[in-house]
Amino acid sequence: MRGGEPPYKRHDTVLIVDFGGQYTHLISRRVRELNVYSEIVPYTMVTEELIAEVKPRAIILSGGPSSVYAPNAPTIPRWLLEQGIPLLGICYGHQLIARMLGGRVERGYGEYGRVVVRIVRHSKLLHGWASREVVWMSHSDYVAEPPRDARILAVSEETGYIAAYEIPSMNIYGVQFHPEVSHTPKGKMLIRNFVYRIAGCRPTWRVENLAETLIEEIRSRVGGSHALCAVSGGVDSTVAAVLASRAIGDRLHAVFVNHGLLREGEPEEVLKTLRGLGVRVDYIDASEDFLSALRGVVDPEEKRRIIGRLFAEIFEDYAASHPEIEWLIQGTTYPDVIESGAVPGADRIKTHHNVGGLPEKLGLKVLEPLRYLYKDEVRRLGLALGLPEEVVYRHPFPGPGLAVRIIGEVTPVKLRIVRRASRIVEEEVRRAGLYRRVWQAFAVVGDDRWVGVKGDRRSEGYIVTVRIVESEDGMTADWARVPYEVLDRIARRITMEIPEVTMVTYAVTTKPPATIEPC
Ligand code: XMP
């Protein structure tokens, strides 16, 4: 196993069966906010071995894009409904249970967005709900006839469609709406009712108490040998390195590579932070190699490939010259693990490919102490480990660094512009008290020019684009409505402090259709 003993061995666990729903991670996070551990598993992977391995205290079936009548519609084995394990179906899950247990699902009027539901019967699930409540829906199929032995708990006020049911004899519940989204104001209460009142889960999952366990696990797995950890200064790799350093001390080789594409002052800050936390760091300044390999390269994908290849080579060389290293410690977090198709207990059966990190060709055994944690949980763990708030709440910064914020070739002048302008954007965003509210705030430069007048002289200068976005997870994003005064200060400072720039623009396109980074 890559991450030591999985938490489901020690904590009451809610298993979330994923049918490809948009909000599956949100369900999982809502459960964890209640201090109850949750695991996500794709519906195709639900087996008796898995249930025996995880021993879930409750199961939630997610939503999904399919129709229960579609050919090869996603489904689960019938025995799963007959275990007496408390089970909650959401949207597609709600329809699937109905169909499997003798109800009828039909194509109806779509209900999208805000819908008012009327509560028609008291139940543990809707404990604390008023007789009418607002919920958030997104469906076109609906349960036209409830499953056998079901009692209807709530209906949509307008359409009369079944919004919630329960089958007391089987401990099964279904809701057509999405309790996991914030647009269902009493949704958290519903999940709380399910997890505590119905399933009786004990709230023992607290990341703050996890540090000692993770440190002990790293210590026992690495034993007397050495481990390598690539650190970037980001919260995930910093937390992983601090845990490892506390576990194995100087047998941890934390390696920080400067590819010459870091932000202003970043190498010094990263080294100071890690060393301040007691981590022994090897600093490799490979700026020259990276920048000369990037000379003349314009294509964004090519730039990424070059950077990725050089990184891998540096680590391969490092590992080759330190034969005592047997382990690679990575800060991979739960969403990446799920995306890679991992399932609970599967590590014992097969090793799946390494996610989002260094190539397996390093030939090292991989340990991912954060593989069960969401980002907000990593942050809380970081605070518990004594990481400074600047590190814990640092904005994400892409591995290829400023190269993805320079459109076209990475030239010394463009690098200098983007570095200085990014610093200004960040400083002003902090000064306005917006840093923690936004996902990322940075500057971008390309090759286009804008004619300017500076001191009565005509000059041609670069265009800097400022990008400030709000996002939950980087998958979608909205541009931040920052006050004009803040934009004004940013624009003035950039043109004043960077003589090569004559124009500052603000990027006002969401993701999608644009991505967050320009390349
Ligand atoms: P995009 O630009 O795809 O970015 O909308 C989504 C999020 O991912 C970050 N990003 C990267 N992070 N290596 C990384 O470690 C990369 O190559 C990379 N590209 C984008 C980006 O900063 C944003 O938070």
How would you describe this protein?
The strands form 3 sheets. Strands 2-1-3-4-9-8-7-5-6 form a 9-stranded mixed sheet, with helices on both faces. Strands 12-11-10-13-14 form a 5-stranded parallel sheet, sandwiched between helices. Strands 15, 16, 17 and 18 form a 4-stranded mixed sheet that branches. It is an alpha/beta fold. It is built from 14 helices and 18 strands. It is globular and about 80 Å long. Strand 10, helix 6 and strand 11 form a beta-alpha-beta unit. The longest helix is centred in the middle third of the chain and has 21 residues, at 300-320. Xanthosine-5'-monophosphate binds next to loops.
Number of helices: 14
Q: Write down the overall mean pLDDT.
A: 94
Largest sheet: 9 strands, mixed
Question: What is the topology, as strand order, of the major beta sheet?
Answer: 2-1-3-4-9-8-7-5-6
Share of β-strand residues = 15-25%
Instruction: Please give the alpha-carbon distance between the first and last residues.
Output: 36 Å
Q: Which hetero compounds are present in the coordinates?
A: xanthosine-5'-monophosphate
- The Rg value, from CA coordinates, equals 26 Å
Query: Per the principal axes of the C-alpha atoms, what is the gross shape?
Result: globular
Helix/strand/pairing category: alpha/beta
| Share of helical residues | 25-40%
- Low-confidence sequence ranges: 347-356
Tell me how many strands there are: 18
